[in-house]
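Dear colleague,

Thank you for sharing your sequence with our group. We've completed the structure prediction you requested, and as agreed, I am returning the results in plain text so they can be pasted directly into your records. Please verify that the sequence below matches your submission; if there's any discrepancy, let me know and we will rerun it promptly.
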Amino acid sequence: MSVNQTLPSRWLAGLTAAIKAAVSPLPTTGLAKVSRPRHQGGAAEILELALLVPIAMTLILGIVEFSLLTSNTAILANAARVAAREAIRRPPTVTIPWTYIEVENFAKQAAAKLCNPDLCTVTPTTTDPAAPTNPAAARSGYSITVDISYTHHWLFLFNKNGVALKGTSTMRVP
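Please find the predicted structure tokens below.
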């Protein structure tokens, strides 16, 4: 056997062994085992969570509280408008349409969506010099103003005094 005949056969055998080694799976034991390194950082993640959760909760509760303030302000403005409209209405058979108490009741009924509308303070006034505080006695051409105020107490913040909200509406007596 000559040297030329043995070299291709050895080369072909080596190539075949290399292909088989590349295609075969890795052994399950020994140094050839491949695994992911374990994650080191649980304490840092817990610290980040402990710092961010109170900030996120404060933002969320602030959004909810601001929404309630806005809603209550709109309710008060609507209640003042309803009370002023009812105060200027004059039924054709009645000379004096409403009393002060009835105007106050109209405002409180319109503010019934608030937690406790009995805590509302209603103040109807007129520009009529003959009846400055009685909307029932206001003459035609003068305006009636209904002021309604309410103290909104915070749900999530511990402020004992709360926030004073106010709604005002002015309408002219026909």
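Summary note from our side: Residues 145 and 170 are 4 Å apart (CA to CA).

Kind regards,
the structure core
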